[in-house]
User: What shape does this take?
Amino acid sequence: MRFVGIRLILALVAVVALLAMAACEAEEPTATPAPTPTPTPEVDDTPIWVGLLPIIDSVPFYLAEEEGLFEAAGLNVTFETFSSALERNVALESGAIDGQLADLIATGLINGEQHNVSIVKTTYRATSDVAMIALVAGADSGIDAPADLEGKSIGISTNSLIEYHLDLYLDEAGLARDSVEKTEVASIPVRMELLSQGQLDAAVLPEPLITLAVNAGGTVILDDRQSRLGMSVLEFNVDYLTDHEENVKKFLAVHEEAVQLINANPDQYAYLLPEKARLPEFLVGIFNVPPFPSNDVPTAAETQQASEWLLEKGLIDEAKEYGHWVHPRFIP
Assistant: This one.
């Protein structure tokens, strides 16, 4: 009987032990899985250096800067204003700036040997109402029509957008490109001065100097209102585009916002013309803020025309395809 009692006691102890273990396991809290951390979006605060010229085309950039639109978009933007396209191009090619306000001829020359830059947006265009570049005859030049241009001296900057316009204007008028005397005057203000002094019979000028020359007695002989030949573009170094694509998208969105502000109420931003585009004070109120193109890039026909001219002039070795000029995927 004693043996049976001992076995019974041991069995009861074992049962109690099992029940205690089960109770402990039941009371042990279930571990809560740690939440998966939400990745923090990477902020690319790489500085963006952009080269501008003191011309009408730059006005939306300066408005965006003044209104703090770039900063609001999380962009670190610095503008460098150059006095000439040559200085601007040198800065881009040396890596001092990442992008620039340019034109098709400048772009074609920079991309002559290899693909260095890509256009991402058209920044200014001639319209059917507003010319961008015109051939203007001096007050006492005796030039009243395109036929009067033969043998006359015309101030230009060689191998540039200005000479490009002159050649296509002459083509349009049915005149040989060598029927006029092309006179090299690279500085636009000097070109304007020589025209007003009668030392040039005519000159190819951008706005607002077209308006200035006309107010001084000059006559517009040919312009780009019908052909819409004139345009400026924003382009970036291809390496910057590859490494900082999101920054470029944000930059273009900010530029478009500034364009929309100006186009909706141009008079409100007229003060920027004398401040940033060197509009002479006496033209304030005479020359108005022009419309700026919205979400636009050059067409294949436009880049082909520029490419063919550069080829004819011997400035490039081969015509470039559209993808060598324009990077259109940034435009909605």
Q: What stands out?
A: Strands lie at 48-52, 77-81, 99-102, 117-125, 133-137, 153-156, 181-184, 202-206, 219-223, 231-237. The chain is about 40% helix and 15% strand. Confidence is low (pLDDT under 50) at residues 1-31.
